[in-house]
Amino acid sequence: MRKIINVCVIGAVLFGLYLAFTFKEPRNGILMLGDKQALQEIKNEHKSEIKSVDLYKVKTAENDGKSVFIMDQHTAESVIKKGVLREGEDRDISVSDSIHSLPKMTNSEAVLFADKKNENLKKVVVADKEIPVRYDSNTWFGHTRDSKYEELILIVNDYTFNQIPVKETYMGIFKLNKVYGNNHGIVDTNNAKSVQTEKEFTKLIKSKTAGTQFLEGLSIIK
Description:
A hairpin with a 2-residue loop joins strand 2 (50-63) and strand 3. It is built from 6 helices and 12 strands. It has one domain (24-218): Beta Barrel (Barwin-like endoglucanases). The longest helix has 20 residues, at 2-21. The strands form 2 sheets. Strands 7-8-6-10-3-2-11-1-12 form a 9-stranded mixed sheet. Strands 5-4-9 form a 3-stranded antiparallel sheet, with no helix packed on it. 27% of the residues are buried. By secondary structure, the chain is an alpha+beta fold.
């Protein structure tokens, strides 16, 4: 019994430390993927919750079992201005900071954002097209990396983007009309307001239509 109590106490302390030392930024955005029209319809149907949406052409694929997310230079520069591409460390308590500029691009190499275990990668093959890459940093969307879609993020020039034989899709970055809690994603079940806010956010993201995929909540920082 004493061991169980000790475990509960330790868990509560660790939870408190997590909330205390995890940077708290407003969850005021949503990242989605899908058809252009379907993403726009979500904005039109939820005008009271969604302030605006910016749509960008992207490509998604796999390389050796790893998810690959591909953007052209212009898209990456625009996304960086929103503060939603963040550099940090993959660990139990994730701490990350928005990056403020795109690394220098070359005509021969794509910029690679990925976990440091991939820093020695020199090429990524997508649909039989070999793309030379130059590792830059451990950067991802949002506050933690989601390996289901962004294990490797490639920033390529316009020519390379068009030459990659993968069908284009659209990334939608939705700016919300209000803040739905903080970035740590933990709900204080003893706080009625926190619980209600999370219910509202969950309802909003579940309103996605056919042809769209919710990726994660964002802190849009301009």
